């Protein structure tokens, strides 16, 4: 496995104010990431739904039925993806890529090789 490429995203105080947000990739929209925050923890998945491209950063975070497992529900057709690993709970194998996230001394980092920003910088 490749060494982690921890990329600073922002301050935990700021990023934890939103449950879902989009991280913009300099390399293009297809590389965008959805950053989630719930119950004191950050998660990151690729931003666009594997089903038909819905924006997961506009989805709702819910507990999977009868569990405390957190999932995001795609706003387009309602498929759910586990935040911890991107697994689709509706269609086996239709999973989102997951990115590791860490917090250190109030700063949030995502393990990602492409450059990300909390604001759209692309033209
Ligand atoms: Fe996400 Fe269809 S595009 S469930």
Polypeptide structure, described:
With 123 residues, this protein is mainly β. The chain has a single domain, classed as Rieske Iron-sulfur Protein (3-layer Sandwich). Helix content is 3%, strand content 39%. It has one helix at residues 12-15; strands at 6-11, 20-25, 33-38, 41-46, 60-63, 70-73, 80-82, 98-99, 101-104, 107-111, 116-117. Strands 8-4-3-2-11 form a five-stranded antiparallel beta sheet, with no helix packed on it. A three-stranded antiparallel beta sheet has the order 1-10-9. It has a three-stranded antiparallel beta sheet with strand order 5-6-7, with no helix packed on it. β5 (60-63) and β6 (70-73) form a beta hairpin. 30% of the residues are buried. The protein binds FE2/S2 (inorganic) cluster. FE2/S2 (inorganic) cluster is lined by residues 49, 51-54, 74, 76-77, 79.
In short:
With about 120 residues, the protein is mainly beta. About 5% of the residues lie in helices and about 40% in strands.
């Amino acid at each position: 496995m490749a060494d982690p490429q921890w990329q600073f995203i922002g301050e935990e105080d700021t990023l934890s104010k939103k449950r879902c947000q989009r991280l913009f990739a300099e390399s293009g929209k297809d590389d965008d990431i959805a950053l989630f925050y719930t119950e004191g923890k950050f998660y990151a998945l690729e931003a666009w739904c594997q089903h038909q491209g819905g924006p997961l950063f506009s989805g709702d975070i819910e507990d999977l039925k009868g569990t405390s497992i957190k999932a995001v529900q795609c706003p387009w057709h309602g498929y759910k993806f586990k935040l911890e690993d991107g697994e689709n709970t509706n269609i086996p194998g239709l999973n989102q890529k997951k990115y590791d996230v860490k917090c250190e001394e109030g700063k949030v980092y995502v393990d990602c090789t492409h450059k990300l920003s909390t604001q759209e910088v692309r033209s």
